[in-house]
Structure formats: C-alpha cells, structure tokens
Amino acid sequence: MMRIVLICFLFLASVKFGSAQSESSFQAGEWLKFKLSYSGWVKAGNATLHIKNATYNGLPVYRVVGKGETTGALKWFFKVKDRYESYFDKSTGVPYKFIRDIYEGGHVKNRIVEFDYDKNVANVNDLKRGTKKSVPIQDNIQDMISAYYYLRNHYDTNTIKKGDIVKLNMFFDDEIFGFKLKFLGRQTIKTNFGKVKCLKFRPYVMAGRVFQEEESVTLWVSADKNKIPLKIQANLRVGSIRSDLIAFKGLKFPFELQL
What is the Cα–Cα distance from 243 to 13, expressed in whole angstroms? Predict the structure, then answer.
C-alpha cells in the first residue's frame, strides 16, 4: 500500500542529478491524496503525503508525513495502517530523521532513524524490538521520502533523454539499497482532473514474492514545475495495484491541464 507508493516516489528520485533549480518546486502546506485499487476495480485504500514546516535540533526543516491504510471490505481481510515521516534540511535537502511505523496484516515495524553526518552513521532505534544499532552511510544518502522532494529540485525535465538509466543508493530500515530507473519518454494521460502532460518512468524492482518481474512498475509524473506523481501501475505476483492522484492542495505552481 503506502510502501508501494513511496517506493515509486523513491524511484523517481533516481533521475539524473543536475544543478539545483533556482526555485523550489514545492512548499509547506502541499498535500497529495491517492486512491489505490487492486486489479483495476477493487478499492484497496488511500494514501496521503503532507509537507509541513518544523525544526530539528534547532534547524529549520521540512517535515513530510506519509500515511496509508486499507479501506472498505478489504481492511477486514488484510488491515494496513502505515505512517512514514521524514525531517530534511530546507536548504540542502539532506535528511536528518526518518520514521517508519507500520501495521500490515499483523506485520509490525516501528523504527526511528537519525542521520549523524559528523560520524557518517545512521542510528537506528527499533522500538518494537527494543534494540539500537549504528549503520555506516555514504555521502548523498536519502531516505524514501526525502529523496522524492530532493530530486524535485535537482533534476532538469528539459534534459532527460528517453532510455536514460541511472542508479541511486537509498537508506531503508537498516540497510542501503541500490535502485535503477529508466526514463520512457513523455506522454499525455487522462486523470481525474483532465488531460495532463507527464514524464513516464520504469523503476526496476526485485522480482519474487511481491512483483511479477523486475519491470513490473510504471510511474507517471506531471511535466510541469510541480513534478507531482499522478499515476502508478504495479503488476504483482497475484493481480495488480494502481494508485491515482485524486486530490491535492497547496501546490506552489498552477497545475497545468491540456485542452
């Protein structure tokens, strides 16, 4: 549910790095809501992302809260209630703190990760197990949420070329993962709001227990200055899951529709 949405945002963060754009593509108050459906017709749940102003150890930061949960009849068979939080620097985009508090069909995790850039370690506090550990990290590390917002300000949509494949390292739970993504081109799609010009991506995932094959996920992102995700399609081992943006508020720039 929420993890699939965030994984797709994470893959967006794999797009080619460039110089920071002169103006940020987002602001505090931005709120996005997604509807998730299973196999194209069964309503699976909702997910939201909300960015706020906050402070961390006296520093001005953005705090992004991501939530996801099953709804309707599905929640009686497989209850999901996920919450993710990221605190990252307003100027540089580097993450300071990441929280993952999830319940997925009886599977529970509650972890807080704090990044110490003086010692180059991520301090992981597993609240469920009552354990703590420090994991070595490298430069330019991002968590699952901060990566999406960081790259919204650090990739140039005018220079992306069809077929480009890039890689990125990401810290998740207590490990660093490597991901890669391919840019498939530009496409205009129908949304709940009308026709929108998009950038289309193909994240590579690990085939096996969840995904049918490594090219099972497709992501569409608005090609305007906001660069917000509009649609995600993922083919699973059994069925498929789709996420569609159904509501938003607080966008920094006008949402561009095609006539």
Answer: 18
Q: How far apart are CA 259 and CA 255, in angstroms?
A: 13
Question: What is the SS3 assignment for 36?
Answer: strand
Q: Three-state DSSP class for 12?
A: helix
- CA proximity to 100, closest of 83, 116, 79: 83
Find which of 63-77, 109-123, 207-221 is predicted with most confidence, using mean pLDDT: 109-123
pTM: 0.87
Pairing of strands 31-38, 95-104: unpaired
Distance, CA of 125 to CA of 142 (rounded, Å): 18
Residue 1 is predicted with a pLDDT of 44
Question: Worst-scoring range by mean pLDDT, 50-59, 70-79, 93-102?
Answer: 70-79
CA separation for the pair 241, 40 (Å, rounded): 7
The answer to whether 255 and 50 are in contact (CB under 8 A) is no
